TrEMBL record:
Domain of life: Bacteria
Binding-site positions, GTP: 230-235, 249-255, 274-277, 333-336, 355-357
Matching NCBIfam families: mnmE_trmE_thdF, small_GTP
Domain TrmE-type G residue range list: 220-374
Keyword Ribonucleoprotein set for record: no
Protein name, UniProt field: tRNA modification GTPase MnmE
Organism: Candidatus Pullichristensenella stercorigallinarum
Binding site for (6S)-5-formyl-5,6,7,8-tetrahydrofolate: R24, E86, R125, K450
Enzyme class: hydrolase
Chloroplast as UniProt keyword: no
Length: 450
């Protein structure tokens, strides 16, 4: 397997201070390099595969570099499917750097970014989408992203893609049968049937490429607090964050800029921004704040529009309400005071009576936020990696085009090349060699049917 390959080495742990730092070596010379760079504490102890040993990392003169734990893992039951050695040094980078230098001296090459995982892919241990999921897992922001990446690494998207390819292959074989046995197959009926199936498949793919969900999962959601000055935005932000970060004051218009904080809600990373009161402003500094606030609102996933329920709606409130769309949640703040809010709130937008001061109603608000940002049924199988989403989008669009062609009266065999193309696109998601497999599957299918 590793014939002709060189041996690579790198520090596999994050830079900076830490308890341990791990130097990883992969390739045909991993065992030899470990034997030269590591001396087990128990003289003459034999290195057994996958067994961690205690000892010293030593330099070319046999002098100790660090006290370490080391493991040799024999191919093929390793991450890369090559021989792998790991030396667990003391953290902080200096020891690991010295051990890495030693490994390089002994003939290893510095690994490129992602090269261990690339070897895992090239050796066929994982497919492309899983390799990408590994990268995503390493960079995951928040619990939900970690869960999604892990699921995908274990095959979430691969399984779905495999399913779709199997369905398309089946459709292709039925089209082929209609071409080959025109007197036995009712082409019109086949056309109607597969059109429905193709639309259904396109829908399944589309539900998994919701770019907003994918972005929320990857980068976290953006939640923006809007409302005119003094309605209690900073207080609500504090209540949500449960700490005293924003400056609370009684003078309107003092939250001039956009202030944002990150927190985790049910495992999801949320960036919560408090905006300057959005309203017409004469003051130039405040106006800049207002502009920034408006652009924050435009890019937000959820807008919490705060109103002061202890006062009648003002013109500014009404103007803000007129901008509300499906991303909005109304926060009717100061519920601890007598209500002077008359009717006139839009029905379509969910509203919560709450008090940032006493905490009343906050639970219902966070529950609603959670639901907004929460999981979809397909979250674990979403095309969260941009490259995959692009391919999936193209696949879905092509399928919709095929369904349209059938609708327009084209005969089913006209769309066969397009369906094959979709299989190829999807195969590129997982990186398997597509058309070969698809073609032989069609052939096999055809033989069985015959
Ligand atoms: P912002 O300008 O919208 O950010 O409003 P602030 O958070 O600075 O609050 C303005 C004033 O309203 C402050 O005096 C707060 O103490 C007060 N306030 C905020 N929330 C509540 C609430 O739920 N109840 C009451 N009674 N006062 C509140």
């Amino acid at each position: 397997m590793s014939e002709g390959r060189d041996t690579i080495a790198a520090i596999s742990t994050a830079p900076g201070e830490g308890g341990i730092a791990i130097v990883r070596v992969s390739g045909p010379r991993a065992g030899e390099i470990l034997a030269a760079a590591f001396r087990p504490a128990r003289e003459g102890a034999k290195m057994r595969s996958h067994m961690l040993r205690y000892g010293l990392a030593v330099d070319g003169n046999g002098a100790a570099i660090d006290e370490v734990m080391a493991v040799f893992m024999q191919a093929p039951n390793t991450y890369t499917r090559e021989d792998v050695a790991e030396i667990h040094c003391h953290g902080g980078g200096v020891c690991a750097a010295a051990v890495l230098r030693r490994a390089l001296e002994l003939g290893a090459r510095s690994a490129e970014p992602g090269e261990f995982t690339r070897r895992a892919y090239e050796s066929g241990r994982i497919d492309l989408s899983r390799a990408e999921a590994v990268m995503q897992l390493v960079g995951a922001q928040g619990e939900a992203a970690r869960r999604a990446a892990l699921r995908q690494m274990r095959g979430g998207v691969s399984a779905f893609v495999g399913d779709v390819i199997a369905q398309l292959t089946d459709i292709l074989s039925r089209i082929q049968a209609a071409v080959d046995f025109p007197e036995e197959v009712d082409e019109e009926a086949v056309s109607v049937e597969i059109r429905g199936e193709i639309d259904e498949i396109a829908g399944q793919i589309e539900r998994r490429i919701d770019p907003r969900r994918a972005r929320i999962l990857r980068e976290g959601a953006s939640v923006v607090l809007a409302g005119r000055p003094n309605v209690g935005k900073s207080s609500l932000m504090n209540a949500l964050l449960n700490c005293e970060r924003a400056i609370v004051t009684d003078i309107p218009g003092t939250t001039r800029d956009v202030l944002s904080e990150r927190f985790e809600l049910d495992g999801r990373v949320v960036r919560l921004s408090d905006t300057a009161g959005i309203r017409e402003s004469e003051d130039s500094i405040e106006r800049i704040g207002v502009q920034r606030a408006q652009s924050e609102v435009e890019g937000a996933d959820v807008v919490l529009l705060v109103l002061d329920r202890s006062q009648p709606l003002t013109e500014a409130d009404k103007e803000l309400l007129s901008l509300a769309d499906e991303r909005y949640i109304l926060c009717l703040n100061k519920a601890d005071l007598p209500c002077r809010l008359e009717a006139g709130l839009p029905n379509a937008i969910p509203a919560f009576s709450l008090s940032a001061r006493t905490g009343e109603g906050m639970e219902a608000l966070t529950a609603s936020l959670q639901e907004r940002l929460g999981a979809t049924a397909y979250e674990d199988e979403c095309f969260t990696v941009e490259r995959q989403a692009r391919l999936a989008r193209e696949a879905a669009d092509t399928l919709r085009g095929c369904a349209q062609a059938l609708q327009d009266g084209f005969s089913p065999d006209v769309i066969s090349p397009e369906l094959l193309n979709v299989c190829n696109l999807l195969d590129n998601v997982t990186g398997r060699d597509a058309s070969e497999e698809v073609i032989s599957a069609i052939f096999a299918n055809f033989c069985v049917g015959k």
